[in-house]
Amino acid sequence: MVEKKKKKELSGSWIDEILGGKSDPLANVLSESEEEKKPPLPFISESSPLEEILGTSKKEEQKGQKTPTTPSNPLEEILRSSEKPKEESPAPSLSDILGGGKREVKEEKPAKKEAKSGAPTGVDLLGQILSGGTGTAPSKPKAPAKSQPLPLPLPKPKPPLGLQSIIGETKTEELSYAGRAKVLDAYGNVRILRVKGEPVPIYEIRLPKLSKDEENLLKQVRERAITEIQIDPTLIPNYEERRKIFLREVKRMLKEAAPHFSEGRIEVLAELIVQNMLGYGLLDPLVRDDNLEEIMVIGTNKPVYVWHRRFYMCKTNIVFKEERDILNIIERIAREVGRRIDQQNPLLDARLPDGSRVNATIPPISLDGPTITIRKFKKDPLTIIDLIKYGTMNSDVAAFLWLLVDGLGIKPANILVAGGTGSGKTTTLNALAMFIPPSERVISIEDTAELQLPVEHWVRLETRPPNIEGKGEVTMDDLVKNTLRMRPDRIIVGEVRGPEARTMFTAMNTGHNGALYDFSVIQLSDGRFVLIGDLLEELFEKYSDRIETYRDLEYVVLDEKDRFEVVSVGPDLKAGKHTVTRVWRRKVREGEKLIRVRTRTGNEVILTKTHPFFVFSDGDVVRKEAEKLKPGDRVAVMRKPPKPPQRKAVINPEVYAGISDYYLVPNGKGLVKVPNDGIPPEMAQYLLSINSKPVKLVREVNEGLSYAVGVLLGDGYISSDGYYISATFDDESYMKAFTSAISEFLPESEPQVKREPAYTVVTYGSRPFAEFLHRAFGIPKGRKESLDVPDLVLSNDDLLRHFIAGLFDADAYIDENGPAVVLTTRSENLARKVWYALQRLGIISTVSRVKNRGYKEGVIFRVTVRGVEDLIRFHRSIPLRHSRKREKLEELIRKYRSHRGKRTDRVPISPAMLEPLRRRLNLTVSELSKLASSYAREKVSESLIRHVEKGRMKEIRRSALRGIALALQQVASDLGDEETWVQAKRLELIADGDVYWDEVVSVEEVEPEELGIEYLYDLTVEEDHNYVANGILVSNCMGTIHSNSARETIVRLESPPMNVPRIMIPALDIIIMQVRFNSRKKGTVRRITEIAEISGIEGESIQLNKLYKYDPAKDELQPTEVPSRIINELARHTGMSISELEIEREKRKIILEWMMEKGIRSIEDVGHYIKMFYIDEEALLEKIERDSSAQIQEQIRNIS
């Protein structure tokens, strides 16, 4: 202990020894020199200033006198500091010094010189050195040639100075802490003291004390600087560069005005001027201290507090005496950022040029005067290596999170970091974002830019507050929505507080977890129905030179002109139209199996196991992956798509190029032949070929032609050689409608009619017309293996109705036992598109696959319209010409009537949806029945409500549910019960939704090879991120949030102002909880206390799996051994086993531990090695093996 004490005493600085009241070693040395009675050294002469003595004249050199060498140690700066009077005057505020205030200064009489007793100390002698003695003043230097302001009068001779004046600082607080202060750290002009009786350390900054002459000098130079120094920020945008220029010019002015001042003193005074004019006054040294995280001004006559990175909360020796000084700093910041702060707008939130965040308040909302809080922007941010070293997480957890962020290029996780203020959320988010593969496009969105990433393809976005006029605001929500149009691979949202939460969760659905097979029909907003494989292959071919890849995924970013809209559904269950910005495909992976889902109404879709569906569950809408569906689940199916635009079906003129030998064009006297060398002339009326009759040139499709096309696709054909068209009829009315339509286009052609006992065959011979039908409507020549609904007939509803009429006249029958209308076809494509077409007209149908009982093997598809309501709508909308079918349909409608409404006008219901809400509002069944009947405008009986509450009813009419929902909302609103109102509103959305809840009847695995499936496809849809495929609604970022637990995070997300629909929350994979707390042993620490994953929704609650939990006793995050859903999903997506994924995790852990071992921690170096891992994993591991400890080498051998 004695040795340690001696060592500590020897290690202290001589300044500390003097301040601590110990002997002055410098005084002892100087006194010994005096005793030797040597002549005084030249630089103690009172006849010349210190600068002249240190720069010895040539005359002295000639005499051979030794010139004292210039000291090159810290003492030199102390010796160069300015003279100060022994007497002390009240310290003026900085604004007074630099011309900010009108303070009266009383004249003070010079202090009388006291005779010294005893030998002079080192302090006294140093004082004499710096004061220049009491002799004559030095001669003035020669004036420069150019005109310059006259220098100030030289200061009066000053009495000897004490050590406090030598150092050039105010009387430090440590002088009053005698015997109580311990120096914890010292750097620059800062000392951190631990003082007995003080709850927090003292952050002591040495503030210069100014003489009266120096105060006047600063005022004059400041005024001159304002006039003469003009720096255009647009030419020199870098703040540090502007500061250097300003500092250089101010120093020049000071030297001109006071050439007798030392270089050190000029430096101090110049810094003061620059701090006040460009910086932040008294706060400027704090702002420039990289060891500080936050600076807190809490009012006048109170110390400024800081948060130190090592010593945490500290009290400084800086005190603002005047409120005006604080307001000046606030106003300067406001001007810099183009904001206004006054009594009408008493809050300021801004970012300083160095990236630091500033929050300021002024009265009346801050009761003790203006306040400023500055959160410093760390130039050297903490990396994942720092977080491991500091204990925020261990290397095992860091490797696990790396694996999730990477997702092995297949399924990166959506991660939310949650925690209280100051818990380190942004630091953790920044550290995790470094794991993003370098090939990806990253877009970050922040209120105030804090993230620092070593990522090349990084777009940084920042919100903007409204200007002085209250305009021009750009919110977090605006930026998140805009980001979705910027083709992001990763979206990082700095902090989630409000409506942007819903948008962020929408963005999370941009992940390509699932895909559809190429025979899936998707519904476009213009009314067309297309096979996803055909559409996307066409786009991939067009963009063949711009296909981008990531692992086994291929994707194309569509140009604006090629983007298209699909029908989708929003969280309010209303249909809408949204734009597809990217298209994706990948080959079926080896050994991968797909899932086929069939519903009660015959809808069928084949997709990957992880593709999400929207499922109705006890009054809520949840997402379920395909492989988790089971029979009985109710999935969302489009009931009422948005009405597409009604447009004319204009024929593309290029269809006619080369289709005939000539065009017939009127010339005023008749028709003349014009060779068909391309598109038809504007006035052309007919097509003509050698040995054929004229064919009317069709500019626009009419209802008759649309009907004829339906007939030909149903029970007709074009000959394989393309010379004629033929159709078979079993009804005269139907045949007459067809021939009437065709004769309009073949005015001089007579059909060949062949009558048989049971049917009649009608044939038209015209090669140009047959070729026209083939080109314009896609009717195949020869056998009709693949049929389609032509795009032209989808141009408007009238054409569509007549097309369906022709198709059903030709190939449908009336099922009297159904009752139903049934269309049969061997083409699955045609069947599914007819289902869409009927749905567009408001007619609900089903599609079923049945074995062909005819002479040919295989399957046929049936499109069935059943239920009286839909049959009535079919009869009214579809103008059947087949007399017998029309009569049978009318007879069915007369015979049957609806008892319970059609299936799609009913929604699932359960007791949990109704009874708890009614009881919470203290309503009787009778009261609810009366109120609901009033709102529904129909009888909602008491027995209906009781049946629902007893579980005797599984479905309810939409109108009845809507009436009940509106009644509950009104009562809840009157009682101020917000929670019940929200749940009742959810019932209203379900009742009014544009989807119906189709029952799943089968879920089965299928082999892609057996179905001939090679590629799987997906779309990136803006906004709602879902689309309709085969009639079924299917679905297609990191951020931080304030919260205290994973469960609370979910509650906050669902509650105002975020209002994230519960259906969206499972899109989030991982919640990381982080806290800041005080440890008895380690002081204030930041720790990840919980890592949880969202496993799904059961009933009314989100299900969480806790994967890691913090153990305070061990100060470590411990695994819970709960099987991880996301790891299992990653295994399925990648085709890797769990043990293989563990090896991937171990590789990342080795890299992290190697960087810790080698002391690699900077953002550039850590980012470099993470990038190396993605570029050449093997090369990096080989390098680590050669250059690491035996332990890490053993780990590498184990994974090899």
Order of strands across the biggest sheet? Answer: 1-2-3-6-5-4-9-8-7
The 3D shape can be described as elongated
Low-confidence stretches: 1-119, 125-175, 509-514
Number of helices: 39
Decide which structural class fits the backbone. alpha+beta
Instruction: Kindly report how far apart the N and C termini lie.
Output: 52 Å
Mean pLDDT metric: 76
Assign the CATH topology of the domain at 384-507 and 1037-1186.
Rossmann fold
Strand content range = 15-25%
Major beta sheet, specifics? Answer: 9 strands, mixed
Number of beta-strand segments: 48
What would your notes on this structure say?
The chain has 1200 residues and is α+β, with helices and mostly antiparallel strands. Among the domains are: 280-379, Beta-Lactamase; 384-507 and 1037-1186, Rossmann fold (3-Layer(aba) Sandwich), CATH 3.40.50; 512-641 and 996-1035, Beta Complex (Endonuclease - Pi-scei, Chain A, domain 1), CATH 2.170.16.10; 652-697, no CATH class; 701-831 and 867-891, Homing endonucleases (Endonuclease I-creI, Roll), CATH 3.10.28.10; 903-993, Orthogonal Bundle (434 Repressor (Amino-terminal Domain)). It contains 39 helices and 48 strands. The strands form 10 sheets. A 9-stranded mixed beta sheet has the order 1-2-3-6-5-4-9-8-7. It has a 9-stranded mixed beta sheet with strand order 12-11-13-44-10-45-46-47-48, with helices on both faces. Strands 14, 17, 18, 19, 20 and 41 form a 6-stranded antiparallel beta sheet that branches. A hairpin with a 3-residue loop joins β45 and β46. The longest helix has 20 residues, at 1138-1157. The model is unreliable at 1-119, 125-175 and 509-514 (pLDDT under 50).
